[in-house]
Amino acid sequence: MRNYDTQIARIKEKLVQAKAADTDCKVFGATSHHYVIDSPLTPEEIQEFEQKHQISLPADYKSFLLHIGNGGESFNRSAAGPYYGIYPLGDGVGELGGDEDAMRDGIKIYPEMSSEEWEQLTTTVMQDDISDEDYYREMSVIYAGILPIGTQGCGIVHALALNGPHAGRVININPELYLPQFCYENNFLDWYERWLDEIISGDLVSDDATWFGYSMGGSIDSLLAQYHADSDPVVKKACLRGILVKKTIPPPYFPELETAFRQAETAHRLVLLQLLTKCSYTQARPFLLSMSDSHLLEVVQNVWWYAKDNSADWLETISRQLPQVHDAETFRFCTYLLSATTTDYGPLLLPMTQHPEAEIRSTSFYTLGKLPNKADYLDAFIAGLKDSSNDVIRNTLQALAGITDKRLLPAYHELAARFPEEQDYVLSNLRQRLKEM
C-alpha cells in the first residue's frame, strides 16, 4: 500500500502558503472556509463509518482525515478545500437523491462515458410520470458507489468513486442529471494538492476562477510537453484547455504556441488561436486575420475576450463580412466590437435591422441604441416598432430610451392598440417611453 506521509507533509505546508497567497480570500469559497480545517479523526472513527456502510474509503482520503483534519467552518461545517470545501466525513451521504446504502454497490459511471451511454442510464429517471419510489430507486442505481465530499454550489457536488477501476478518483456531479465529469487527477490527495498549487501560483486567486477540477492541471511547460507527446486528440485538447484557464500565458511561450498552431489540425488550431491571442494579441493578430474568413466567430470572440481595447482594428473586417453573417452568435460578438469603438457604426447595422433572423434584428436595434447619435436612425427604430417579433419590439423600445421625438407617438399608439395585454414586457417598456415624451 502506498505511503502518503510525504504528500501529507507537503499539503500541510502548502495550506499555510495558500492562505498567505490569498489574504483577501479572493479564491472562490475562501470567504466561507477561511482555510480552516478542524482536528483529524481517529482510526476508530473512520473504521466505524466504513463498517456501518460496508465500504472501504480510498487510502489517500483516509490519510487526509487522519493526518490533516475533518470538517471546518465553511458550509455544512466543511473543511478548507475546493469551492465550499470538504464535508466532514459522512455529511454528504444520501445527497445524490438515492439510498445511502447504494454507496456499497458497484459504480456505474466512468471517465469515458459517452452522452449516449449516460442518456441510456438515465432514461427511466427522466420520465415525467415516474413515481417517487421509482425515482429514488433509479437515483440509487445511477449514483451507486459514490460518496459526495463537498459542494460547489447550485446543487453541484464533488464526490469520490468508492469502487471499480477508477476508485479514489474525484467526480464532479450535477444531480440535475448532467453527465458527470471525472477530474484528471488519480486520487483525492493529488486533486487537493493541485488546488493548493493553483492558489499559490495565483491562477485561482480570482472571484471568477470557478473552473477548478474541470480542466487538466499542471504547469504550462508540463501541459505543452504532454500535448506534444500524446497522440490522442482528446488528451491533446485537454492539455490546451488546461493552459487556457491559466490566469496569464507569458509572451515567451508565443513561439512554441505558434509552431503548434501551424502544425495542428483545425480542431486544435482554434484552441491554439485562442491561446495565441491570450498570450500576445499583437503577435497573434496576423493569425486572427488569416482565420477571419473561415472562422469569424472564433476570431471576434478572441478579440473581445483578450483585446477589446483593439476593437477598432477589426472595423474593416467586420464591415466586409457583416452582410454575409447569418449566425446570431457571430453577429452578437461583431456588435460587441463595434460598440467598443468610437465610430458611427449605424450605416453598418441598418441593413441588419431587416435581417430574416429575428435575433439578429433584435441585436441590431439594441446596438443602435448605444450610439450617442441614435436619433439619426429614427426611421429604422419606427420600423422596428412594427416588427413581427415581440423580442425585436421590446429591444427597439429599450433602445429608444431618452429619445422624445414626437414622430414616435403614432408608432407608440399603434403598439398600445396591438398589445391590449402585456406580452414579453412590451407594454412595460412602452409605458417607460411614453413617460419620457
TrEMBL record:
Gene3D superfamilies recorded: Leucine-rich Repeat Variant, SMI1/KNR4-like
InterPro entries referenced in this protein's UniProt entry, alphabetically: ARM-like (IPR011989), ARM-type_fold (IPR016024), Knr4/Smi1-like_dom (IPR018958), Knr4/Smi1-like_sf (IPR037883)
Pfam families to which the protein is assigned, alphabetical: SMI1_KNR4 (PF09346)
Domain of life: Bacteria
Span of domain Knr4/Smi1-like: 40-194
SUPFAM superfamilies assigned: ARM repeat, SMI1/KNR4-like
Protein name, UniProt field: SMI1/KNR4 family protein
Organism from which the protein derives: Chitinophaga solisilvae
